[in-house]
Amino acid sequence: MPIKFPFSRRRVGPTDAWTKCPSCDQQVFNRQLERNLRVCPNCGHHFRMSIGERIDLLLDEDSFVERDSTLESVDPLGFTDKKAYPNRLEAAQVKTGLREAAVWGIGTIEGRRVAIGLFDFRFMGGSMGSVVGEKVARCLEAALAERIPAIMVSASGGARMQEGTLSLLQLAKTTAPLVRLDEAGVPFISILTDPTTGGVLASFASLGDVIVAEPKALIGFAGARVASGTVGEELPEGFQTAEFLLEHGFVDLVTPRAELRATISRVLRLLPVAPVEGEEGVGEGRGWGPIGVLSGLAERVGGAVSETIGINVEPGANAGNGAGAEPVPGRMRSRTRAASREEDQ
Fold first, then answer.
1. Is there a single domain that holds both residue 216 and residue 295?
2. Domain total in the chain
3. pLDDT digit string (tens) for 15-57?
4. Does 281 have pLDDT greater than 80?
5. Sign of the CA dihedral with 222 first, then 132, 264, and 255 last
6. What is the distance between the alpha carbons of residues 242 and 10, in angstroms, rounded to a whole number?
7. Nearest of 186, 106, 104, 189 to residue 147 by alpha carbon
8. What are the distances in angstroms from CA 290 to CA 155, 179, 296?
9. Which of 174, 251, 315, 327 is such that its CA lies 20 to 30 A from the CA of 257?
10. Does position 206 have pLDDT exceeding 70, yes or no?
11. Does residue 42 fall inside a structural domain?
């Protein structure tokens, strides 16, 4: 008969205290992972984040106010695969505590108001159905109505197959407001996280005025094998990573998570909302656009940049890219290269 000891000499720790990094296979203490913004301290692998963690990372404390929080998906097609669609929705809601795969609202980043939408990949792979598409569209329309920058943080597998053609219609619904934002001079910043694929990438996520990605994020329309078979040739290794897309011009910045908030804040300063025509104090201020942005940048950072790119900088009441910019005292007018050559002669 086996002897039963009143206690075990082996101490068994909780099974959820550690997480194995998929990149370096190291075991990372969960508390350490949370303190490090869910980035592996050994290899820098960026784990996926929940919507709540993203809000804490990007926005000022207690500044986020959610809108349209009661919107929920229905089952217009009566779709059933291995599970009925309503059952899948209910399971995802219990798992994540969310009503849908996306949340949007108004918050601030270093005091600047923004309309921001965020995806959570844990909710049915962050797939975009009718409600998610509606939330994205309302976020962009609110940015236009209130004339504040729009930010979208994507983490999605694409369109939601359980809603069929209705999910594909969301590509047009989410893209249409971006045309009006562009015409009104309201900037849109797209943040691509791991993964951003399918219909989300094929619509609003790839149309940002500035596209920022996290390191090693998977970004692509279809899987690597499908894409290779479609074009009929072997594609380069890592062609769907953020770094590869940065090298080939699809992404503007690849920014580590610890620097993401500061980077977005800097972009917001460089891309202010264009003043409304006829607004008091506008005068002949520059509208939003590439030339206005470059000129505004030159005026902000001073004569060193202006001499490099050959722009005359004159402080005045309308200095800066937009209305209400304060003149900077003591700034010298930069000389053009032609003038410099004349003096040298």
1. no
2. 3
3. 578 999 999 999 999 999 999 999 999 999 999 999 999 999 9
4. no
5. negative
6. 45
7. 186
8. 29, 17, 10
9. 174
10. yes
11. yes
Q: Is 90 exceeded by the pLDDT of residue 282?
A: no
Write out pLDDT tens, residues 115-163: 999 999 999 999 999 999 999 999 999 999 999 999 999 999 999 999 9
Residues 77 and 204 in one domain: yes
In a domain, 4, yes or no: no
Task: Please indicate, yes or no, whether residues 164 and 236 belong to a single structural domain of this protein.
Answer: yes
Contact, 222 vs 235, CB < 8 A? Answer: no
Q: Per the structure block, which two tokens stand in for 114?
A: 């923004």
Helix axes 51-58, 260-270, angle to 10 degrees: 60
Q: Please determine, for residue 287, whether its predicted confidence score (pLDDT) is greater than 80.
A: no
Measured distance between the N- and C-terminal CA atoms of the chain, rounded to whole angstroms: 107
Q: Which of 258, 248, 254, 238 is nearest to 192 (CA)?
A: 254
